[in-house]
């Protein structure tokens, strides 16, 4: 994760050979080929930042974390926009789409992104997803894979409340799962580690709520475009990493990606209902058709977080099997 003071697009200095060698050392099977366009979707603490550092190094692509870019923008104490961004982040809500999109637009043109990009925590709404699609189309680019880091909310509290960051470098530690060698000190520089100001129980609850309400619809959005795969993010860091590589490489092996047309997309979830109406006045029959949605319509905002997790998992399996 990049620091607010550092740029969030990373310049790669390590050669691919060196990196492949380092992967062997930690027992991760090396994969071939660089360059990919990846989206990471997942709740706070699911490991997006942790994995995106590694994945962007592996594929030699830029890492764009909208969280990091916004934290950087929020540091501008003199502007109203900086203040609004800060307040929204502290409250666990989502920053306005137009601010986020302009950050993406600006950063995507950087030379570090010429070999591909990894979006960490972007898009977060259907609107952002649609705007990204148009932006990429205008640049004649496309996404290769959308990885969802799925994990029950209960496990996230420990991860978030135990997180320690080294702001200057973006290095992330965890009191319990990945402690620094010396308490509260960065392993490399010895500088003091900090906590993120939104890593409190109260803001975490708001962030989780925002994720379930506004971001999870994106999973269906990308499933319909044949780009989505879910990974169990409660596994060890290396296991999540290994599976992420396998999935991205599988998607990249597909000869060509073609998004579903609107008709195909609707056909995959809808059938037509036909009704016949008789008009006694002029003795004519009118045949009417209307699309029916064979997806289960549920107002997910009324579900508890735990039940919502189960609901999303079950509907994902049913959809994958073509049952709904
Ligand atoms: P952002 O910075 O993206 O925060 P987030 O989505 O809440 O995610 P986190 O960064 O907290 O978690 P992570 O998934 O990166 O986990 P990490 O790898 O650090 O966004 C912040 C805010 O900015 C948002 O709330 C919103 O206001 C705004 N924003 C951002 N993007 C936006 C957008 N597109 N539109 C509108 N607003 C936007 O891991 C967490 C901890 O767990 C670490 O300590 C790590 O060491 C540990 N850990 C990681 N993986 C494992 C593992 N497998 N096992 C054990 N521990 C692990
Ligand atoms: Mg992060």
Automatic annotation (TrEMBL):
CDD domains: ADK. InterPro entries: Adenyl_kin_sub, Adenylat/UMP-CMP_kin, Adenylat_kinase_CS, Adenylate_kinase_lid-dom, P-loop_NTPase. Residues 1-28, 174-199 are annotated as: Disordered. It holds the Pfam family ADK. Gene3D superfamilies: P-loop containing nucleotide triphosphate hydrolases. Residues 1-10 have a biased composition (Low complexity). Keywords: Kinase, Nucleotide-binding, Transferase. Belongs to the adenylate kinase family. This is Adenylate kinase active site lid domain-containing protein. It comes from Adineta steineri.
């Amino acid at each position: 994760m990049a620091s607010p003071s550092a740029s969030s697009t990373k310049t790669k200095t390590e050669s691919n050979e060196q990196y492949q060698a380092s992967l062997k050392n930690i027992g991760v099977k090396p994969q071939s080929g660089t360059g990919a366009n990846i989206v990471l979707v997942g709740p706070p603490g699911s490991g997006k930042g942790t994995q995106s550092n590694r994945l962007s190094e592996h594929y030699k692509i830029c890492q764009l974390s909208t969280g990091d870019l916004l934290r950087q923008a929020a540091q501008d104490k003199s502007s109203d926009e900086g203040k609004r961004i800060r307040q929204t982040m502290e409250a666990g809500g989502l920053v306005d789409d137009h601010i986020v999109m302009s950050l993406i637009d600006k950063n995507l043109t950087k030379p570090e992104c010429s070999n591909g990009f990894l979006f960490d925590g972007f898009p977060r709404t259907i609107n952002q997803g649609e705007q990204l699609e148009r932006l990429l189309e205008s640049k004649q680019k496309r996404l290769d894979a959308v990885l969802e880091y799925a994990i029950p909310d209960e496990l996230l509290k420990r991860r978030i409340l135990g997180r320690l960051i080294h702001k200057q470098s973006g290095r992330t530690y965890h009191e319990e799962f990945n402690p620094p060698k010396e308490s509260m000190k960065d392993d490399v520089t010895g500088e003091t580690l900090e906590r993120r100001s939104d890593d409190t129980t109260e803001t975490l609850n708001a962030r989780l709520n925002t994720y379930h309400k506004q971001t999870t619809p994106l999973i269906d959005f990308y499933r319909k475009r044949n780009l989505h795969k879910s990974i169990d993010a409660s596994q060890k860091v290396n296991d999540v990493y290994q599976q992420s590589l396998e999935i991205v490489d599988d998607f990249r092996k597909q000869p060509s990606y073609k998004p579903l047309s609107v008709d195909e997309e609707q056909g995959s979830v809808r059938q037509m209902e036909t009704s016949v109406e008789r008009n006694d006045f002029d003795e004519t029959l009118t045949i009417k058709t209307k699309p029916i949605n064979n997806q289960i319509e549920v107002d997910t905002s009324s579900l508890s977080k735990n039940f919502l997790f189960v609901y999303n998992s079950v509907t994902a399996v049913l959809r994958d099997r073509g049952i709904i």
